Amino acid sequence: MTENPLHAIMHPRSVVIAGASNNFLKMGSIQAMNLLHGGYHGEILFLHPTEKTVLGRPSYRTAAELPFAPELALLTTPTRVTPGLLDDLGKRGVRYAVITTAGFREMGPEGARLEAELSDIAARHGMRFVGPNCIGVLNAHEGMNLTVCPYTDPPGRLGLISQSGTYVAQTMPYLRDNGIRYSQAISVGNATSIDVVDCLDYLGNDSNTAAIAMYIEGIRRGREFLATATRVARRKPLVALYVGGSQAGARSSQSHTGSLGSPDRLFDGVCAQAGIVRASAVDEMFGWGHALANMPLPRGRRVAILTHSGGPATSMADACERNGLEVPEFSPALQSRIRAFLEPTASAKNPVDLTFVMGQESFIDKIPELLFTSDEIDAVLVHGMMDTGFASEMYKVAGHIFGISREDFIKPMEFDLTRLLELPARYGKPLVASNFLREDHAAETFRDRGVPLFRTPEAAVKALAALARAGEFRKRTEA
Amino acid sequence: MTENPLHAIMHPRSVVIAGASNNFLKMGSIQAMNLLHGGYHGEILFLHPTEKTVLGRPSYRTAAELPFAPELALLTTPTRVTPGLLDDLGKRGVRYAVITTAGFREMGPEGARLEAELSDIAARHGMRFVGPNCIGVLNAHEGMNLTVCPYTDPPGRLGLISQSGTYVAQTMPYLRDNGIRYSQAISVGNATSIDVVDCLDYLGNDSNTAAIAMYIEGIRRGREFLATATRVARRKPLVALYVGGSQAGARSSQSHTGSLGSPDRLFDGVCAQAGIVRASAVDEMFGWGHALANMPLPRGRRVAILTHSGGPATSMADACERNGLEVPEFSPALQSRIRAFLEPTASAKNPVDLTFVMGQESFIDKIPELLFTSDEIDAVLVHGMMDTGFASEMYKVAGHIFGISREDFIKPMEFDLTRLLELPARYGKPLVASNFLREDHAAETFRDRGVPLFRTPEAAVKALAALARAGEFRKRTEA
After folding, report:
1. What is the Cα–Cα distance from A262 to A219, expressed in whole angstroms?
2. Per-residue model confidence as pLDDT tens digits over A420-435
């Protein structure tokens, strides 16, 4: 078996960039800056027809002048010069490339001819490349960021394969807001030399990647995709957002990456057979992928709901039933053990609704422990914790009345979440949360520690349903 | 016709608060602080059995000792003393109350008996009250906030009626993050004296409220609800989140507000007949309500999509079709007018995908104007603007290379959105947007100026579909 070319592309010891300049509004320059300042330890060289230095580093006029053959080339060059440049790089001994340049197959027959030229040149030199018409690749564990957006979070466990560059790069601030972290991310673009199947095979073997999310507009190698996905899904949960199934989606994807979609139902069949959880929106793809990468898969569909708030409790219960999850009423024995920690007006049936009481340890320690150790449930949903976020809100009106400093007011509201964070792995049950407060110590801790945190109760339930589906796929292959 | 009691409750010239103290962790104190510091101009009095002053203001021991009869009483008192206190207030001449105290019908037979006592007392004195078991009310245009969360945004155009207190109050930081602003919000709780129907009638006549969102666990006066909703929906769009239709939702709502849900299909029928757009999650209820309150209703289902990014373009096109919207290919004439503003690799068919180019005026001025004035489409979707948010991201890596100040780097990226913001009202077509960047000048401007802004392309499409549905309800009643 030949080694997957992505191994070399995602771990290069040297990169040459063509298309970067000293104009920081240009895409190539932005990619270069992200590589220069993303923590990458390899060597970085520049190619530029006229500039002597690029971004403060020496630049070479032609591929032939490069002092050695870099392990990877990044091309963000005008379309017409790109094939010639790839040829020159091949002659210089470069074997791998990422081509972000657009204007190929997605632009019609003339572009398709140019794209075929790229293929011929690569074949002649034994080269493999990602793209063209992509936005670059990221290996967060290597600090190697060839995309257009800085990646500033620590590396994570979610791998991404995307036929949209935006979903690899411009979503990074969104992912950061939600504590979602990449292991590696690959924008496949027109997938001329390296396609989704190659990426799936590669990330399937990457030890830093615990789950894989895919954004798909169309699949060319259907049979290979099914076989590879089936094999990978046995070890790693897969989630896919497929948008090529509608007429409007297919037309848009045609002018985007030149992909041809196949009917929705066909893709549904592939998902069911391979064991891919299908998402219906980009936030689901990321949020579910994040949950799949960081939480154990539940062994069943019985959910416990814990909250301060009746509305979110009811929303969660309702959404569970609509998404195939169960919210069993707890046994009298479990209810009475929970009730020991509740106010008289609170409910212990499931949902457990503590009602409006601030600063309770029962919420984060005692009751979760009862739920995680119980054999009556397979997963735990938590909404709202009223940690420092609510206190911050209150400080706006309470601060001047009580003449108390912000820190003195807010600090005592910080929960110690250590024990709670250990429960999912210890008992093999996922914890999924939602919270309306963004700036909140508990929310920040969840985001920082890989607990999937959503902004609405319903979104948390849907993510848990995705975990349950992945759990059932897993059981089926284990049987 | 008797005047709706909510008019008095939502515009009181004086409020007496029972249940506030100098312990700022207590719910009553929090409500009092929100009233004291929310901009309310009326008189505020306190009732407390032992404290001489509450939150720095004189407090009275009994209702009889109050210097005059306040126009509204807020009760956040222990359950058992609440009926007696209501009686005392009634004797003192108070006619309207908001009772946040819990522990009534939702707690079983003994609670139900206490709740009946509240009704009897109110009947005896000719009183009307919101609650019990609610979280208070907000009239943002009066600065009157009797809820547990500070409301810090300017007043808006969305009215909320909710059987969950959390969705009135604890969601406020979430609403602020999304530029969603209340005109008024009412937490009905157990709805003993004032129910959803009363609220709907009242907000239907409120000139500050342009659309009404409802969170419903169960409806007691079905016939009146249908009649009132039908009447109000002729003038104001209505959106409802109904969670009482599932078994799990019904059980949870029973212990939440003592509501009894009816089957889902029945509620669907009510929505179709009355002209209520039905949401399926709390973010939809708020986001759609916000869009309905701030954008003109489209006259048809033909949508133009404008973006920098092929992935979101395709996601939007796909989501449009799945949600009953059309993304027609533009006429050759319109395409050629649009193409004048595009790079050669960009697409003008619809979606219009400008591809990765920064700082274009065409995005915000020229192309939107062509779309809004065209008779080929009824609504405009925009994803991503690459305004200052992307520049802020880039400054992290570019700042030290170019030795440029943050402001000099970011300021030139600010778009002037004045013309764009005028287009929806001028041409009677809604503008709905999405953006992965939270901190961004364009995003902030949209949030501040009432343009519905969502974090994913799919969420923007669903909101537009809600507008289209409301537009069709409107057409039906006009026909």
Report:
1. 8
2. 999 999 999 999 999 9
Yes or no, beta carbons of B317 and A162 under 8 Å apart = no
CB contact under 8 A, B246 and A394: no
SS3 A72: strand
d(CA A467, CA A430): 8
| Phi, psi values for residue A393, rounded to 5° | -60, -45
Nearest to A173 among B243, B251, B438 (CB): B438
A137-294 folds as Rossmann fold (3.40.50)
How far, in Å, CA of B145 to CA of B41, rounded? Answer: 11
Question: Using one digit for the tens of pLDDT, what is the confidence trace for B139-176?
Answer: 999 999 999 999 999 999 999 999 999 999 999 999 99
Residue of A nearest to B286 (CA): A456
Check B315 against A243: CB less than 8 A apart: yes
Q: Hey, what are A388's tokens?
A: 């420092």
CB pairs under 8 A between A and B: 293
| Nearest-angstrom CA–CA distance, B348 and B336 | 8
For chain A, list residues with pLDDT below 50: 1
Given an 8 Å threshold on Cβ–Cβ distance, is B283 in contact with A456?
A: yes
Whole-complex ipTM: 0.93
Quick: pLDDT tens for B272-307. 999 999 999 999 999 999 999 999 999 999 999 999
> Which residue of B171, B246, B347 is in closest CB contact with A255?
B347
- Binary contact (A170, B257; C-beta < 8 A): no
User: Which distant-in-sequence residues (6+ apart) come within 8 Å of A417 by Cβ?
Assistant: A364, A442, A445, A446, A449
Check CB contact under 8 Å for A398 and B24: yes
Q: What is the mean pLDDT of residues B19-43?
A: 94
Amino acid at B80: R
Q: Where are the domains of chain A?
A: 5-130, 137-294, 303-478
Distance CA B167, CA B161 (A): 9
pLDDT of B2 > 90? The answer is no
Side-chain half-sphere CA neighbours of A334 within 13 A: 21
pLDDT, mean of residues B267-274: 94
State what percent of residues in chain B have pLDDT above 90.
Answer: 78
Establish whether domains B5-130 and B303-478 are of one fold: yes
Residue B1, pLDDT above cutoff 60: no
Alpha helices in B297-387 (DSSP H): 310-322, 332-339, 361, 367-373
CA distances from B321 to A217, A324, B289, B318, B350 (A): 15, 26, 22, 5, 13
DSSP B367-403: HHHHHHH-TT-SEEEEE---SHHHHHHHHHHHHHHHT
| Cα end-to-end distance, chain B, whole Å | 29
A349 neighbors B251 (Cβ within 8 angstroms): yes
From the list B249, B321, B349, the residue facing A317 with the nearest CB is B249
CATH number 3.40.50.261 given to B303-478: yes
Whether B359 shows a pLDDT value over 60: the answer reads no
Residue of A nearest to B101 (CA): A345
> What's the pTM?
0.95
Q: CA angle B60-B120-B203, nearest 5°?
A: 80
Measured between alpha carbons, how far is B362 from B375 in angstroms, rounded to an integer? 20
Residue B258 scores a pLDDT above 70: no
Torsion, CA A18, CA A23, CA A27, CA A32, rounded to 10: 60
- Asked if pLDDT for residue B318 goes beyond 70, the answer is yes
Q: What is the CATH number of domain A5-130?
A: 3.40.50.720
Query: Do the strands A43-47 and A431-434 form a parallel or antiparallel pair, or are they unpaired?
Result: unpaired
* Distance separating alpha carbons of residues A146 and A139, to the nearest angstrom: 9
A81 touches chain B (CB under 8 A): no
Contact between residue B199 and residue A347 where contact means Cβ atoms under 8 Å apart: no
Q: What is the full DSSP assignment across A84-150?
A: HHHHHHHHTT--EEEE----SGGG-HHHHHHHHHHHHHHHHHT-EEE-SS---EEEGGGTEE-SSS-
